[in-house]
Amino acid sequence: MLVSAKEMLNKARQGKYAVGQFNINNLEWTKAILLTAQENNSPVILGVSEGAAKYMGGFDTVVGMVNGLLKGLNTTVPVALHIDHGSYDGAIKAMEAGFSSIMFDGSHYPFEENIAKTKEIVELAHSKGISVEAEVGSIGGEEDGVVGAGEVADPQECKAISELGIDFLAAGIGNIHGKYPENWTGLNFEVLGKINEATGDMPLVLHGGSGIPEEMIKEAISLGVAKINVNTECQVVFAEATRKYIEEGKDLQGKGFDPRKLLAPGVEAIQACVKEKMELFGSINQA
Ligand SMILES: [Zn+2]
């Protein structure tokens, strides 16, 4: 059964580790992540952008697939199904469809409007036991078609949003989505420290977790980050493994064209990537 992400993230924040949010794109992705979480006794958050939900045939398809897998794979570790960078309407539709956690990304609205809309979403979500992530300061790179400037969040704005009853907070601290450029200056720990002070015990969320050096991840966790989003890295290893299979001509041998064989190396690559992240984040055996 899907659970809200509130409890697992409060526990992570207290225990000084982070739970990974791994974005899903299809059945193989979802299965790979759920199996890895179960094998490693780790809580996990499945992230779904609105674009990915549309690709999979809508929110109902996603909820049906994930619930089916939880049952079929006998998954017992805590799993949250979370809408990633949800719009106002998207967040509401995801809740109606059965998502157990939502992110409302109002970071592109004027701050007052972000406050007002976040408040409404929190009220609706909490009446259904659904956890809420809000965002202050847009995160750089591409957020599903929305290109952000990579701002650093204002700690006082973080404080104001955190007091609306949200369950966890994403704040820009120099992190960006997608691959990090060569000239990236790294995470801004001074600002993260101030945000951490201003928001008390609020679990903080680090978006764009693909490609951030390990020491920075560890320092971020020590400063209150309890949820780290990983997306690009799984996509890259899946593509690499699939390309290798085809370049080696394996799809031309016997029944190598069978999708269950063709996609298997990619699935294994995702599993290895997810396990590596769970080790780094410290979530193994925390289910
Ligand atoms: Zn993000």
Please, what is the average pLDDT? 94
DSSP E strands, number? 10
Q: Kindly report how far apart the N and C termini lie.
A: 14 Å
**Strand order across the largest sheet:** 1-2-3-4-5-8-9-10
Structural class: alpha/beta
CATH superfamily: Aldolase class I
Tally of contiguous helical segments? 12
CATH architecture: Alpha-Beta Barrel
Share in helix: 40-55%
Describe this structure in words.
The structure is a single chain. The chain has helices at about 5-15, 25-40, 50-55, 60-70, 90-95, 110-125, 155-160, 190-200, 215-220, 230-245, 260, 265-280; strands at about 20-25, 45-50, 80-85, 100-105, 130-135, 140-145, 145-150, 170, 205, 225-230. The protein is an alpha/beta fold and about 290 residues long. The chain has a single domain (about 5-280), classed as TIM Barrel, CATH 3.20.20. The chain has an eight-stranded parallel beta barrel, surrounded by nine helices. The protein has a two-stranded antiparallel sheet with strand order 6-7. Helix 2 (about 25-40) crosses helix 12 (about 265-280) and helix 7 (about 155-160) packs parallel to helix 8 (about 190-200). The model has no long low-confidence stretch (mean pLDDT about 95).
Output the keywords:
287 residues, alpha/beta, TIM Barrel, 8-stranded parallel β-barrel, two-stranded antiparallel sheet, binds zinc ion
